Structure formats: C-alpha cells, structure tokens
Amino acid sequence: MKRYVCAAIAAIVFGTAPAAAELSVGAKAPMFATKGALAGKEFGFNLRAALAKGPVVLYFYPKAFTQGCTLEAHAFAEATPEFAKLGATVVGMSNDDITTLKKFSTEACRDKFAVASATPAIVDAYDVRLVRDGKDTGLTDRTSYVIDQSGKIVMVHSDLSYKDHVSLTLAAVKKLAHKGH
Q1: Rounded distance, CA 164 to CA 68, Å?
Q2: Nearest Cα to 57, choosing from 38, 78, 29, 37?
Q3: Which are the catalytic amino acids?
Q4: The dihedral sign for the CA sequence 51, 56, 74, 34
Q5: SS3 of residue 163 by DSSP
Q6: Helical segments of the chain, H only
Q7: The pLDDT of residue 15
Q8: Signal peptide: which range, if any (predicted)?
Q9: pLDDT, tens digit, 9 for 90 and up, residues 112-154
Q10: How would you list the strands of the sheet with 56-60, edge to edge?
C-alpha cells in the first residue's frame, strides 16, 4: 500500500513540473495548415506548401502587441530581406485571434512577413505551451524553429527574451544555404 501511495504522490509532484518545451533538432516538424495574416490580409498558411519553396523559420511568440513580441516582430521585419535572399520564409505564430493577427501583421511586422494562428493542436504538436507555476497560461512560449525543406528541424531556440531569436535563426538559415552550395 505504501508503495502505491508513494507512486501516486510522485506522479502528482512530478506530473506538475514543467516539461522541456520544444521539439529536438533532427525531429520531423509536424505539418499543419492554419489561418494567417500578411499585410493586414487573411490567408491560409500551409507549412508543407511553404517548405516546398525553401526553409521555414517558424517562431512562436506569446501575445501580439506586448513589448517583447512587438520588438521581436520589428527585428524579424528588418531581417526579412536577408531571410528572403536565402530562400527562407518567416512565419510568426501565436494563439491571437485573426483580427489581432491582421493588425499585428501590418503594425508590428510592417507587412514584411506573415503571422499565423497557433491552434491548440499546433501548440501541442510543437510543445510550446507556456506554463508558469505549473499552470497553463493560455499563451505560447517564445520558441523559434528553423525547418529545412525536407521537414527536419535544424535549429531550436527557446527563450522568453526575444533578443537572440532573429540572429540565431538567421545564422541557421545561412548555414543551410552554405550546405546547399
């Protein structure tokens, strides 16, 4: 009996601990389709279709129009021409509604790249649920992925600070481009 009680307590204690929140380098990226916005206009985003054109930088951010997320969007907007020269598509992902994403795509993303809806299924597939004090916040964690054309994750950076996401994803895309030559 004691053994079962201890096992139950251990399951409760360890079950509430936050898990490592991201997929690993080398993992197959889960394919999905969702609604998105670019330059204030709604469109359908399909990861498989985007990968057919080149690598994809999929970056999850917690909430549109918060300070860190706006600054990160500005940084990705400034770097969009470099990503484009390397054949990469940048897509920001959050669970904001489509009306908010349309506004954010124009104001913060400066019409340079798309933002898309991270549905609960996408959040779970990419393991980017933001958990604080053992509770789901309803937001996505700040995690960036670089996915190569074969659908393999080649770079992951998970950090609530927005500061290194653009430079690290750009370096990974450059590395992919050099491998292709």
Answers
A1: 12
A2: 29
A3: 69
A4: positive
A5: coil
A6: 2-15, 47-53, 67-85, 98-107, 120-125, 165-180
A7: 35
A8: 1-21
A9: 999 999 999 999 999 999 999 999 999 999 999 999 999 999 9
A10: 41-46, 33-38, 114-117, 89-94, 56-60, 143-147, 153-158
